[in-house]
């Protein structure tokens, strides 16, 4: 049943309230897990010492040759962005070749047993190489259980990295030297062949001089051709600029731009244009008012024609006879005039470039004509001379580089430098107490939270207002305090009513019921989920507070298992609900006035063998209806919902039911089932009241309560018999 009802509401869990409820369990779990995890972590974590060393990669050393310096310059050696020299050196540090050599040399120079030294694989995993951002620095770190082993081994690795780097540079210099020697031999053959070819050609054609003149013509022609290409590019740029300005200013030539700018600057034309515009506006307004024959309209037309004539005369003095200027082309503002000036300048520059290009092209044609007249033999000689000079120049460059390569090969060069030796560490880096404590604390917090969650999930009672509203989907309209000691007699009740802290919660509950209910007298059934949850305490104290607030209030004890109100209110055992319903005793005769102002009681009376026969009657409904006419409040104390259907039946004769729940006592599943049953029966549940006060007699088993009542029953029967005799005497008289 709990599983089906759980779908009604999400699981209500307030972290603050849950932690508060299970604070001791959470604290114990936190401490135990924290201590256990910390102890285990320290026990299983190895004790390691870490040392580090830094290498400066790319330190360009000063060599006797420029080639040696170039070989140590990593910025010039990187072929692309994908090849990072610093990253390459970082990989070299962890290479098996370097690590194997370092281990062998370290083992040879030290007295440490081989079983205490790491293997190549362990060393590769233990060494950490980091590139310090924005620098060419490599930081190499190594951890080992023995601090001296870590220090000496790391220093040995750094030295071997430098040796390996020097060896690589020498190998590269040697490769360069061999390559240059091969290239020099080939270049010497090419130079010799070029010299032989030139000498034979001169001997064949008897050519000794005049090649200087030919060489000058060719060089001049080449220079003019370069100048022509530059002029064409400049001219194209000028044309594009000229075209863009032409689209902006709206004129096609520099003359038109000058005229437009000149017209825009003339002050008389500007003034005439303003007057003409004013007359046009006035003429439009006049035509709107009068006809074209009206004198005002005719006068404005005459004035407009005169102004146009003056404007055209002034314009003819500025604009040439064959030049027409539209009003849209006139540069009437400073920006338009600046653009016109820029256009004129650009147009003049373009014409200058065109003229200059024409002159250069003419010079090129002239030089080409002169070169064409040079004998073909002279041209061939020039070509042979160039080949011989080119071969000689290349040979000299190779010989210089070869000398540099030999010097670099003989030097000890490296682009790596050690920045300080690794030092023997004094404090271990593992285990790290702070890290272990932080991680243990996190695990302990998670464990404590899990413990609280498990305890919350295992809880089967309703504990606070949020849980009640979430699980029962019914509003909590009152949270009543716990009275200590609980009310056991009339004196205790009077003391309670004199304490405002005790009265105010009931007063607030009463106000809530008044605002939510009807304006007429209210008949309220008070019940609980199970016995021992304080429903009679709520009924008694609520009725007493209503009484002292001048509300005429009647308590009806409809819970025949706990007939306790006569004892609590110091009233004698008398007729009650059973006699009113079963024996037709007038209900006013069975009602007793209490010592509390405006508070009356209709007790349970004799305990019937079948209580349901008392509740399920029309007389019960009639009784509640008549009582509501005489009292402001009729509070019916009914049996618990779990034990009987009395509460549901009585609620049909009332304005609604008030369900009492005791925190940390009322079963969650039972309360959900009770609400479900009440809703199915059509009961109007006014709300839920959280109550922590249970009357002493409510805690007694029903059998004991019945035994107490039996002692009062004889007096009640005697009183009932006496009343009947009295009534009979009256009728006889």
Structural overview:
There is one protein chain. The protein has 733 residues and is α/β, with parallel strands linked by helices. Among the domains are: 19-45 and 431-458, no CATH class; 521-732, P-loop containing nucleotide triphosphate hydrolases (Rossmann fold, 3-Layer(aba) Sandwich), CATH 3.40.50. Helix 9 (147-205) runs antiparallel to helix 15 (376-410). The longest helix has 59 residues, at 147-205.
Briefly, what is this?
The chain has about 725 residues and is α/β, with parallel strands linked by helices. Helices cover about 65% and strands about 10% of the residues.
Q: What's the topology here?
A:
Elements: H1 2-5, H2 15-21, H3 23-44, E1 49-57, H4 66-71, H5 74-77, H6 85-93, H7 96-109, H8 120-126, E2 128-131, E3 137-144, H9 147-205, H10 211-249, H11 254-265, H12 267-289, H13 295-318, H14 334-373, H15 376-410, E4 416-419, H16 433-458, H17 465-472, E5 476-479, H18 490-497, H19 500-516, E6 522-528, H20 535-548, E7 553-557, H21 565-568, H22 577-582, H23 587-590, E8 592-593, E9 599-602, H24 611-615, H25 618-630, E10 633-637, H26 646-651, E11 656-661, H27 668-680, E12 685-690, H28 696-699, H29 702-732
Parallel strand pairs: 5-12, 6-10, 6-11, 7-9, 7-10, 11-12
Antiparallel strand pairs: 1-3, 1-4, 2-3, 8-9
Helix pairs in contact: 3-16, 7-9, 9-15, 10-14, 11-14, 12-13, 19-20
């Amino acid at each position: 049943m709990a599983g089906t009802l759980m779908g009604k509401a999400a699981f209500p869990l307030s972290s603050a309230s849950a932690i508060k409820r299970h604070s001791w369990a959470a604290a114990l779990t936190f401490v135990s897990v924290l201590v256990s995890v910390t102890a285990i972590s320290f026990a299983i974590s190895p004790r390691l010492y870490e040392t580090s060393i830094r290498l400066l990669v790319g330190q360009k050393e000063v060599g006797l040759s420029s080639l040696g310096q170039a070989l140590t310059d990593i910025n010039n050696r990187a072929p692309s962005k994908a090849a990072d020299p610093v990253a390459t050196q970082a990989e070299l540090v962890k290479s098996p070749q370097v690590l194997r050599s370092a281990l062998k040399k370290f083992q040879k120079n030290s007295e440490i047993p081989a079983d205490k030294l790491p293997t190549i694989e362990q060393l590769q995993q233990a060494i950490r190489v980091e590139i310090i951002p924005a620098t060419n620095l490599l930081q190499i770190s190594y951890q080992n259980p023995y601090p001296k082993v870590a220090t000496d081994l790391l220093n040995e690795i750094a030295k071997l990295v430098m040796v390996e780097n020097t060896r690589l540079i020498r190998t590269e210099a040697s490769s360069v030297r061999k390559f240059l020697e091969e290239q020099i031999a080939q270049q010497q053959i090419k130079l010799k062949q070029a010299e032989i070819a030139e000498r034979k050609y001169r001997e064949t054609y008897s050519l000794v001089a005049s090649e200087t003149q030919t060489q000058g013509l060719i060089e001049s022609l080449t220079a003019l051709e370069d100048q022509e290409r530059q002029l064409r590019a400049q001219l194209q740029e000028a044309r594009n600029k000229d075209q863009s300005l032409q689209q902006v200013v709206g004129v096609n030539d520099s003359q038109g731009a000058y005229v437009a700018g000149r017209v825009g600057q003339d002050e008389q034309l500007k003034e005439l244009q303003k007057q003409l515009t004013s007359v046009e506006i006035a003429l439009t307004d006049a035509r709107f008012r009068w006809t074209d024959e009206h004198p005002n309209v005719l006068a404005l037309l005459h004035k407009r024609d005169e102004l146009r004539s003056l404007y055209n005369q002034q314009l003819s003095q500025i604009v040439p006879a064959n030049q027409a200027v539209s009003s849209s082309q006139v540069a009437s503002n400073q920006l338009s005039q600046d653009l016109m000036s820029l256009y004129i300048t650009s147009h003049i520059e373009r014409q200058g470039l065109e003229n200059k290009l024409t002159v250069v092209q003419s010079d090129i044609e002239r030089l080409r004509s002169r070169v064409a007249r040079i004998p073909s033999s002279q041209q061939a000689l020039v070509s042979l001379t160039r080949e011989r000079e080119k071969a000689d120049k290349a040979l000299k460059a190779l010989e210089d580089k070869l000398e540099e390569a030999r010097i670099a090969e003989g030097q000890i060069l490296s682009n790596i430098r050690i920045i300080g030796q690794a030092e023997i560490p004094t404090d271990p880096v593992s285990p790290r107490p702070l890290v272990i404590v932080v991680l243990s604390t996190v695990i302990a917090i998670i464990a404590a939270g899990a413990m609280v969650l498990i305890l919350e999930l295992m809880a089967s009672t309703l504990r606070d207002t949020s849980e009640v509203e979430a699980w029962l989907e019914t509003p909590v309209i009152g949270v009543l305090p716990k009275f200590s000691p609980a009310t056991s007699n009339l004196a205790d009740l009077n003391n309670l009513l004199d304490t405002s802290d005790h009265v105010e919660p009931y007063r607030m509950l009463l106000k809530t019921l008044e605002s939510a209910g009807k304006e007429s007298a209210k008949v309220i059934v008070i019940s609980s989920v199970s016995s021992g949850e304080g429903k009679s305490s709520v009924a008694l104290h609520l009725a007493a507070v209503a009484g002292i607030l001048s509300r005429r209030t009647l308590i009806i004890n409809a819970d025949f298992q706990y007939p306790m109100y006569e004892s609590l209110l110091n009233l004698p055992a008398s007729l009650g609900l059973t006699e009113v319903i079963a024996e037709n005793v007038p209900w006013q005769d069975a009602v007793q006035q209490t010592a509390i102002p405006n508070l009356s009681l209709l007790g349970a009376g004799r305990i019937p063998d079948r209580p349901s026969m008392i509740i399920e009657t029309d007389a019960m409904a009639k009784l509640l209806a008549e009582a509501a006419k005489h009292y402001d409040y009729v509070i019916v104390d009914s049996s618990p919902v779990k034990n009987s259907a009395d509460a549901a039946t009585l609620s049909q004769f009332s304005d609604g039911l008030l369900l009492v729940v005791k925190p940390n006592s009322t079963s969650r599943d039972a309360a959900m089932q009770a609400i479900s049953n009440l809703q199915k029966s059509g009961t109007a549940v006014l709300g839920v009241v959280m109550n922590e006060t249970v009357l002493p007699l409510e805690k007694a088993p029903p059998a004991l309560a019945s035994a107490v009542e039996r002692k009062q029953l004889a007096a009640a029967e005697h009183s009932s018999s006496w009343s009947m005799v009295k009534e009979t005497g009256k009728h006889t008289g």
